[in-house]
Amino acid sequence: MIPLFNEEESLIELHNWIVKSLKKANYTFEIIFIDDGSTDQSWDIIENLSSSHNYTYGIRLAKNYGKSQALNAGFKFAKGKFVATLDADLQDSPEEIPLMIKEIKNRNLDLISGWKKKRFDSFFLKNIPSKLFNWAARFVSGIKLNDFNCGIKVYKNKVIKTIDVRGEMHRYIPVLASEAGFKKISEKEVVHQSRKYGYTKFGPERFINGFLDLITIWFLKKFGKRPMHFFGLWGTLMFIIGLAFTTYLGVDKLFFNPQSRLITDRPHFYIALVTMIVGVQFFIAGFIGEVLIRNNNYKINYIISNTTSNYED
C-alpha cells in the first residue's frame, strides 16, 4: 500500500520493483496506490497501471488531506493477511517486504517497522531532528523502536482494521497499535536510498507538528479515556486554593485588620479570583470531555473523489 502526493516520475518504476520483489518470493498480493490529491499526472499513471494489472488498485482523495488520511483510506480497502506500507519516492526498498513478513511469521508479531539506520537525507534538516524525535517518542511511549516514522512497515490485517489513524498520527502508528492491545511490535533494519526523483514534500514544520502530536499521544495515553482525572483534579485543586485564599483575605479584613484597605484594592484578591475561575473552567473542560467520549461517533474525515475501475468497496 503506497500513499503518495505528486510522485509521477517514480510510480512505474516503483510498481515494477514491487511486482518483481513479491513474485520472486511467490506471494499472492495486491498493490494499492492512494493518491492524496496529486496535481501532476500521478492519477493517470495509476489508472493505466490498474487497467494493465488486475492486482493493482487506485484510490484518489478529493484533495491533499495528508498521509494519515491516505493511509486510513488504504487500510479500509486492504484485504490481505499481511499489509505492507511504503513511500512512493523509491527510498524504501520493496525487497524488504518478504523479509519483514517472514519475521512477523517466525516471531508471531503484530507489527514490524523498518529502521533506516543509515540514512541518505540532509544531516541537519532530517537526521538530527529525526534522532531527537525518535528519542522523545521512545521516552513518552515506552516502545523501543529506533525509527517510528519509517515509511516501510508490515502489519497483520487485524491491526490496521482496529487502529484509527487521523490528524497526523501516522508517525505514531506503533503507539496507536500498542494502545489498542497489539503489543508484539519489533523492527528490522532496512536499506534506505537517496531520493531519485523530485524533492521531499515535507518541510521543517513536520517536526514541530510531530512533537505537538507526541504531546497529544502522551495525554491520550494517560487521560484519553478519563479526561476528568486530569482536568477535574487540577480544576478542583485550583478552585480550592483560590477559595481558601479568598476566605483568608475576608477573615483578615473582618476580624484582624478592619481598618485596612478594601479587599478589592489588594492584588492578592484578583490572583485568588482568577485561580478560582480557571479551576472552574478546567473542571468544566473535563466534564465536557467525558460527555464527548461517551457520545463520540466515528466520522470519516476524507472524501474519495475517484477510484480505478477494479476497485471494490
> In percent terms, what proportion of residues is strand?
5-15%
* N-to-C CA distance: 16 Å
Q: Which parts are unreliable, with pLDDT below 50 for 5 consecutive residues or more?
A: none
Structural class: alpha/beta
User: What's the overall geometry?
Assistant: elongated
CATH architectural label of the largest domain: Alpha-Beta Complex
Provide the succession of SSEs.
Answer: EHEHEHEHEHEHHEHHHE
- What is the number of beta strands? 8
Specify the biggest β-sheet: 4 strands, mixed
List keywords for this structure.
four-stranded mixed β-sheet; 313 residues; Spore Coat Polysaccharide Biosynthesis Protein SpsA, Chain A; 2 domains; 50% helix; elongated; single chain
